[in-house]
Design goal:
FAD/NAD(P)-binding domain; about 25% helix; 13 helices; single chain; five-stranded parallel β-sheet
Length: about 475
């Protein structure tokens, strides 16, 4: 990485220019600029400060709520969490990291000047720049989608708006096939709103869950009086006096409702990168060090399409854990500590119809475009399933499914009791050789959960002795 401890002579000759109230770029000081208030941006700041205690960090973003836990929005919608509980960092945490904040929307990157143009603010110069601008909900592109009462769940402000509308709404239609759509369903149910849930296929989340897992989720939804509509697609949102009055389906059927909420996928916010000439595909293309084709500009989180040296592919990943890992790795590289980003096995803990569910590694099937943009919480790795044998059991859980390779455990899904989640994650992410138990796992009527638990216990004991 080039040595960037410098200021341009022209600026130095004019003295230290005031770039933002109180933000003076002093000669000899490196300025790290991070765009985005999400977990990738905060992790990058933590990483930079672990290496560089002195130089300047500026965080820029336009979310009025700052940094909060996006996964926590599901529990905020159901009333299980107050909005104050969504903030995982305190003011003292941020104070220790010593960074400045600019609240505003970045409108342009001027690479030749190494400056950001920010709406309503003076230009901000950078020495190293991280784009951690995330992704946004794909729009519902049907007539009537702009009516009052059409909702999405992208940010905390969206969640607050949903709660406001739920207080006056009686019936909601939810459109979408993944985790975020189900969060919307559960949020409305918790607020006493009647829900019609539209599924494009013949079952819920068919690219990730198998048929039995889908049916478990659907049965739990039906127990909560959710009306499921299969092979259903919205063609129009019907309005009256500017507000939602119903929807029309592809088969012509009309459902009356007060609210329509959709979660039909996300797309990376690549506009800034594209405008400035950075290489993009479906995200901002970065190498294993999270660098773009401009070596002093980095990208991390939902917006980054990171190169994986193991698979030799560039992958988008919208999970919270990888976003944090990417942000931290980018921060280390920005501070001069060269560190490759090694993608971990996908690991996602979520709640499906009130049932805690952990998804580890490779569990899904198919290359349907629905999976690419399912919602926050999906992973492209699930699209590339090697040949595997599936073993199933009822080990004190509603559902446990393992995908067994020749020597490795390729993936697992645990629904309900989570005692096996930790060991399974370690076995998958650690590429632990499961040859000693492979035949046992595949035997008819095998008690798979007991076999895994015993194997993990013995594995830990052996590791300690070594």
């Amino acid at each position: 990485m080039p040595d960037l401890r410098r200021m341009r002579g022209a600026l130095s000759a004019r003295g230290a220019p005031l770039r933002e109230d109180g933000f003076i770029h002093r000669e000899g000081i490196v300025r790290y600029v991070i765009v985005g208030f999400g977990v990738a941006g905060i992790a990058a700041i933590e990483a930079i400060r672990s290496v560089d205690k002195e130089n300047e960090i500026v965080l820029v973003g336009d979310d009025p709520n700052g940094f909060y836990s996006r996964p926590g929005l599901a529990y905020f919608l159901t009333g299980e969490l107050h909005d104050k509980a969504l903030y995982p960092r305190t003011a003292n945490d941020f104070k220790r990291l010593r960074f400045n904040t600019i609240r505003g929307r970045v409108t342009r990157i001027v690479r030749e000047k190494q400056e950001l143009e920010i709406e309503g603010k003076p230009p901000l110069m950078y020495d190293r720049l991280l784009l951690a601008v995330g992704a946004q909900a794909m729009p519902l592109e049907v007539p009537g989608a702009n009516l009052d009462g059409v909702l999405k769940l992208d940010h905390l402000e969206d969640a607050k708006k949903i709660l406001k509308y739920a207080r006056r709404g009686k019936t909601a239609v939810v459109v979408g096939g993944g985790i975020t759509a189900l969060e919307l369903v559960e949020g409305f149910v918790a607020r006493g709103v009647k829900v019609h849930y539209l599924l494009r296929g013949d079952r819920y989340w068919s690219n990730v869950l198998d048929e039995q897992e889908s049916r478990i989720v659907e049965h739990r939804l039906e127990e909560e009086d959710v009306a499921l509509h299969y092979h259903a697609e919205v063609t129009e949102v019907i309005g009256r006096n500017g507000r939602v009055h119903g929807i029309r389906l592809l088969d012509g059927k009309v459902l009356k409702c007060d609210l329509v909420a959709y979660a039909i996928g996300i797309r990376a916010r690549t506009e800034l990168a594209k405008q400035s000439g950075l290489a993009i595909d479906r995200g901002i293309l970065v190498n294993e060090y999270l660098q773009t084709n401009d070596p002093i500009i980095f990208a991390a989180g939902d917006v980054a399409q990171a190169y994986d040296p193991l698979t030799k592919r560039s992958i988008l990943d919208s999970l919270w854990g990888p976003a944090r890992q990417q942000g931290y790795t980018a921060g280390l590289n920005m501070a001069g500590k060269k560190t490759a980003y090694i993608k971990s096995a996908p690991f996602n803990v979520t709640r499906l119809a009130g049932l805690t569910t952990t998804i580890i590694g490779t569990v899904g099937r198919g290359k349907d475009d629905d999976l690419v943009g399912i919602a926050r919480g999906d992973s492209e790795t699930w699209r590339h399933l090697p040949e595997a044998i599936v073993a199933q059991t009822g080990f004190e859980v509603n559902r446990l499914r393992l995908l067994v390779g020749e020597k490795k455990l390729l993936g697992a899904i645990v629904m309900g009791d989570q005692k096996l989640s930790f060991p399974l994650e370690k076995i998958v992410s650690g590429n632990v050789d499961i040859s000693p138990i492979r035949e046992k796992l595949l035997a008819p009527n095998a008690r798979v959960g007991d076999i895994v638990a015993d194997f993990w216990s013995n594995y830990q004991t052996t590791a300690v002795k070594k």
